[in-house]
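lol ok so funny story. i was supposed to be doing the assay writeup but got distracted and ended up predicting the structure for this chain instead. priorities right. anyway since i did it might as well share w the group, maybe its usefull for someone
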Amino acid sequence: MSEKKKKNTPQEQPEPEKTTNEAPAEDTAPAPEVVEEETFTVTREQMEQFESLAKLLSDGNDKYLRLAAEYDNYRKRTTKEKENIYADAKLDTVKPFLEVADNLDRAVSQFEEGDPHRQGMEMICKQFTAVLEKLGVTEIPALEQPFDPGKHNAVMHIDDENFGENIVAEVFQKGYQMGEKVVRFAMVKVAN
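and the output, tada:
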């Protein structure tokens, strides 16, 4: 560069040190800022336009909230329907296997105690019962229990002094339930 340009370019000079005898700013509270509100004048047309835009925004927000609530209800409803469909399909699948369990119980009773065939059939029955329990299917307790029309199907009534009133005296066919839902009612004889 030429010397003229060097002389004309501003050179950075350090700022002179400021010396004050005031206390540091930490000890003093900052002065509150005073904000003056600006006022505007609008015409009637502008005011009506603002109001219509505010109404449009409010309507859009309301529409959005309704749509969000409707979607949430739809999601909950479909989840519940899926669970019910799965439970019903499981129930419909298990029902025919209960007849197999009845036949296995009948087969066990055909053999005498201690017979190896009976022991084999009992092991198969236990395995089958374990599979049903894994699926959530349990036997409804019936024998010598109070009669419950929600779980028992009374096909006979007897008068017997050995049993109390409305007590199940004999079970003809076992009943099963899946959770709280009855898969098959127990067919029973009830004492009066």
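The first helix runs from residue 3 to 8. The chain is about 50% helix and 15% strand.
back to the writeup now i swear
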